[in-house]
Sequence to fold (317 residues):
Amino acid sequence: MPSQRPLRQKDLLGLRGVPREQLVRILDVAAGFRQVNERRIKKVPTLRGRTVVTAFFENSTRTRLSFELAAKRLSADTLSFSASTSSTTKGETLLDTARTLDAMRPDAVIVRHPASGAPHLLAKHFPWTVINAGDGINEHPTQALLDMLTMRDHLGDLQGRTVAIVGDVLHSRVARSNIFGLQTLGARVVVAGPGTMCPPALAELGVEVRHRIDEVVEEADVIMMLRIQRERLGRAMMSSTEEYAALYGLDERRLARAQAHTLVMHPGPINRGVEISPEVADGPRSVILEQVSNGLAVRMALMYLLLGDEGGGDAAA
Fold:
């Protein structure tokens, strides 16, 4: 794979306002990195001598492991920070924690934080690259990038394609980043869910708002089911998981009405039997595990493009 120019910005904080050209470059480079992950020796020297810190103030499995493995496969030195075992449990502020990390001279910090805007604050105050791994209910840009790469693998150019995002869109940082990125790539985005989780105000983001999953299944090229975020929901938003599954869950009966090529996606973790049935999650239309695999390639590509600008050479050398 030929060497690529670095991205113009220092950080990746979100997809809102990111030009189409940059989104396509990230996806193209990520597609090239997949060959590295298929080799017997799954490592390249691109970021040798660089230090990448994963700083997670919220629990994570897929995102955290994916970033850590991506950095290791690029030959970076890695440090892992967990809020549950750090001085933040003693009342240390985010900026004081970041000052401690800064004293160790990292080249990049991958941040997940429950407060929207936390990665933006760090990017403003520190010289190292900041990559947003999810901030509050704001954005989760790398998840959206891996989602778009997966869609592109199966559907080609996303211009004019219809993507239905179903569920708790209001609290979903995944949904927001996908809305911004997909619209930039020319896709039509339709959101559907209960009025409490999918309010009409979402139309201000340029999406079509529906309130029944049955209204979107037949027209969608992609159906993206969102996790019910019990930790963010009050009782007034959802009476019971059983009722939600009956009204908004994607099962085989509903999926049978979709087009033959329609993809089923989910950012994980899955509440099986609630937003999606086990038969659909594990069925032939599901590309959920492909999303996980593509996440590794996307995160390798991002670190390469943001950090590999000083003699990194061929990314796949």
User: Anything to note?
Assistant: DSSP finds ten helices and nine strands in the chain. Residues 310-317 have pLDDT under 50 and may be disordered. The domain at 20-138+295-307 is CATH 3.40.50.1370 (Rossmann fold).
